[in-house]
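Exercise 7b. Backbone tokens:
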């Protein structure tokens, strides 16, 4: 869409200017701001016939209409607002709604369930490319008649403005010079009515365009083409351009091909071809140059869908799932790592698409999408959309619009894909349903994509399939209670066997002095043998950076973040200390800032240090690292995975992103560091999560038939019960122990949790607000349901002190909706107190 100004309506037929006095239609609009209400605006009369619920509009907002926003039409009616004067909708952006009724219902439900504002939901749901951006601009006022009022500098500035259609504040500031107060200058010119300040609004989405060439229609006729070639005999370079085009586009065989044209880039790639001759032919109307929109997700595999051949075990699982779907809307597929769940998913997706339904396939991590997407594209080609945050705004908008238009009946994506405008879903697959990555922590809404998917499935009468080798206790409990169907797949694909898991006692090795830095002798020797056999290894350490912190040996000083109550992590590659909470960075000190000692050393280890040590221990080996630091670029995941798949890497070191879903035939060894830290984490879910993570990363080994993999877990306490369950792959044993403990202490799935986090720059103010809120809640809910306030493990983040209040509500015994309304009232009491207005309170429903 071309840029347009709010002051002057566009000439596009979608946009209209109107007599504002005759309008009677009003719209309730969702604005992307954290306010617990919608806003009523007046619809101009000429727009009334074409505006629809779910369309985007542009509206002014704020004092003196100082801001411009994209809003969504949620309701149309004839009732003006009671407490304020309705302003006018400025522009209509969509002739056809980009948000459907199901999504609007979803927005309302999420705002209510997750205790946030509907504007928060809209802000997260819509890709930024669908939200209009605005920027203040200045233009010369043609009605200005008092040049004698201007200063010398203002005269020069106006002279420049007359040459330009408009300038931004920044452009004016550069013209005026660094010493000029540009704000004061603009204020002066506005006061003299010499300039007009307006908002230029632009839609961020820009379609991808490609330049093409075609012969003028005249030369599609054989006689005219021959005459052209004869005429160009005296201009051999131009004749060669025409001949080269005809080789690519046989006009005489099929004239229709000429109208489709040829990508200009194809001719530009030929260095021997004269580009000036090509331009001359365009200028002389022999060729026509034109642009077409190019989809960003084209794929050469868009043809036939190959048949997926399931093994006996996979076919039995697929049949059981379909049988369970006849009675249940949700089914849990519990399949061991490497059992071939993806092939079962593909089989079910093909059936759903054949019935005319839409399909959504959710994955927890972008890293996981990389390998699976390639497999899915081989089957579905460009009929499949891909949606995740590493894609550009334009790419995400194209998928969104592709779902609206029906181009994409099937989309694979991460948690944000639940917001896509589906209206005919038949199947939703939530792969690795146990993963914490499905839960959004910031900003609001703090939703869980799995739970949102279940609600969408309920509304659209779609079947939901949850899949995991290590299901969440909540999902497995609901399956055992027969509220979900349950299908189990216990055999690995292709007769591959589960790996042998061995525990390495690092405490004993340290006593015997056989450790090589962070590597036990057992792991070091196993890596050496694996490299010798030309087989691949994966090493898991759930900590990035070189070292968790730096400390002075003489005075125990520790490098800490200025903004957060955490130590700074040392990153050797960038030679800096970095906070993983707020991003604060510092140079590495040469001496201790407290005592001046030079004995400042690193403590602990992360993935970067392991990578560094591997290159010392095995100098001829090829090592790659996969963590947040090495995968910031858009295709970094894909590049690392492709390199590993090709066999160009001996050892892959990574954090939890390497634990899930990756499938490599040549990996025969997995090493796990720091297992004890995961198990001892102070959280009621620590045992469950440790089992899930250890089992998942172990499952990367030995996925090829005829080769049993080996997993070495380094631990200081090999006798821990959970490690024995990991060795035996005893999920049911873990479940039976954990579910009893959850019931005894009233934790999920026997209760619902809501965490309230109180934040303020002053610790005492934050604590006072938290204690008052907890006391108010306890008075009605009782002391067994309200725990805290307590300071969390990290008590200060971004210079704000935190206090947590945990609310435990018995499942099926409490009116949760009424309790949430009561909590909101008590929060409002705090926030409207004059002494506590700067406090912020965050509600996290179903907190993890």
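Sequence design result:
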């Amino acid at each position: 869409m071309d840029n347009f100004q709010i002051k002057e309506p566009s000439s596009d037929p979608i946009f209209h200017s109107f007599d504002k006095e005759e309008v009677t239609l009003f719209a309730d609009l969702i604005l992307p701001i954290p306010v617990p209400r919608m806003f009523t605006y007046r619809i101009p009369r000429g727009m009334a016939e074409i505006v629809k619920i779910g369309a985007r509009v542009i509206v002014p907002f704020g004092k003196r209409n100082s801001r411009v926003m994209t809003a969504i039409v949620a309701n149309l009616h004839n009732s003006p607002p009671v407490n304020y004067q309705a302003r006018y909708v400025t522009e209509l952006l969509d002739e056809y709604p980009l948000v459907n009724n199901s999504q609007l219902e979803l927005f309302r439900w999420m705002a209510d369930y997750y205790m946030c504002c509907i504007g928060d939901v809209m802000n997260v749901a819509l890709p930024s490319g669908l939200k209009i951006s605005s920027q203040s601009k200045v233009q010369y006022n043609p009605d200005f008649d008092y040049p004698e009022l201007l200063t010398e500098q203002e005269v020069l500035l106006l002279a420049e403005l007359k040459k330009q259609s408009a300038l931004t504040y920044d452009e004016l500031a550069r013209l005026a010079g660094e010493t000029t107060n540009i704000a004061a200058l603009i204020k002066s010119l506005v006061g003299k009515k010499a300039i007009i300040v307006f908002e230029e609004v632009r839609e961020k989405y820009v379609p991808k365009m490609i330049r093409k060439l075609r012969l003028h229609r005249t030369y599609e006729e054989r006689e005219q083409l021959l005459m052209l070639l004869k005429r160009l005999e005296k201009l051999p370079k131009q004749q060669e351009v025409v001949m080269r085009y005809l080789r690519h586009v046989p006009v005489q065989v099929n004239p229709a091909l000429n109208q489709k044209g040829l990508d200009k880039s194809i001719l530009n790639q030929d260095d021997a071809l004269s580009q000036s001759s090509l331009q001359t032919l365009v200028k002389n109307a022999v060729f026509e140059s034109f642009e077409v929109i190019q989809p960003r997700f084209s794929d050469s595999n868009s043809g036939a869908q190959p048949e997926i051949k399931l093994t006996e075990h996979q076919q039995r699982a697929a049949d059981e799932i379909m049988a369970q779907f006849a009675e249940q809307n949700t089914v849990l597929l519990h399949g061991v790592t490497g059992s071939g769940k993806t092939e079962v998913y593909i089989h079910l997706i093909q059936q759903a698409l054949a019935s005319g339904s839409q399909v959504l396939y959710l994955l927890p991590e972008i890293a996981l999408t990389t390998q699976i997407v390639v497999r899915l594209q081989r089957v579905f080609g460009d009929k499949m959309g891909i949606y995740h945050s590493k894609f550009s705004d334009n790419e995400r908008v194209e998928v969104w619009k592709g779902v609206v238009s029906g181009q994409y009946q099937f989309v694979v994506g991460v948690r944000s894909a639940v917001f896509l405008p589906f209206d005919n879903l038949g199947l939703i697959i939530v792969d690795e349903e146990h993963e914490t990555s499905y839960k959004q922590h910031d900003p609001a809404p703090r939703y869980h994509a799995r739970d949102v998917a279940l609600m969408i499935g309920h509304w659209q009468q779609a079947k939901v399939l949850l899949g995991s080798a290590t299901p969440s206790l909540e999902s497995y409990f609901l399956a055992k209670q027969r509220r979900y169907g349950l299908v189990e797949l216990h055999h690995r694909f292709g007769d591959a066997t589960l790996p042998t898991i061995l525990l390495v006692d690092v405490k004993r090795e340290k006593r015997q002095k056989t450790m090589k830095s962070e590597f036990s002798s057992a792991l070091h020797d196993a890596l050496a043998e694996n490299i010798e056999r030309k087989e691949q290894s994966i090493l898991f350490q759930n900590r990035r950076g070189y070292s968790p912190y730096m400390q002075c040996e003489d005075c125990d000083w520790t490098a800490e973040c200025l903004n957060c109550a955490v130590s700074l992590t040392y990153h050797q590659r960038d030679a800096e200390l970095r906070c993983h909470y707020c991003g604060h960075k510092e140079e590495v000190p040469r001496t201790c800032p407290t005592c001046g000692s030079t004995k400042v050393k690193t403590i602990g280890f992360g993935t970067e240090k392991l990578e560094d040590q591997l290159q010392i221990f095995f100098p001829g080996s090829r090592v790659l690292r996969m963590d947040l630091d090495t995968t910031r670029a858009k295709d970094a995941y894909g590049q690392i995975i492709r390199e590993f798949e090709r066999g160009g890497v001996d050892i892959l070191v990574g954090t939890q992103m390497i634990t899930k879903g990756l499938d490599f035939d040549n990996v025969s060894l997995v090493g796990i560091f720091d297992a004890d830290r995961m198990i001892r984490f102070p959280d009621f879910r620590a045992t469950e999560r440790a089992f899930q993570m250890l089992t998942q990363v172990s499952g990367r080994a030995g996925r090829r038939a005829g080769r049993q993999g080996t997993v070495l877990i380094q631990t200081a306490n090999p006798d821990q019960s959970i490690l024995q369950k990991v060795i035996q792959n005893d999920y049911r044993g873990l479940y039976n122990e954990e579910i009893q403990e959850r019931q005894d202490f009233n934790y999920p799935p026997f209760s619902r949790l809501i965490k309230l986090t109180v934040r303020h720059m002053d610790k005492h103010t934050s604590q006072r607000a938290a204690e008052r809120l907890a006391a108010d809640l306890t008075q009605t809910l009782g002391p067994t349901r309200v725990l805290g306030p307590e300071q969390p493990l990290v008590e200060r983040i971004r210079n704000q002190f935190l206090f947590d209040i945990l609310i435990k509500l018995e499942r099926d015994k409490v009116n949760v909706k009424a309790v949430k309304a009561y909590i909101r009232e008590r929060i409002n009491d705090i926030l409207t107190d004059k002494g506590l207005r700067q406090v912020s309170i965050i509600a996290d429903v179903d907190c993890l």
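Instructor comment: The chain has a mean pLDDT of 87. The chain is about 35% helix and 20% strand.
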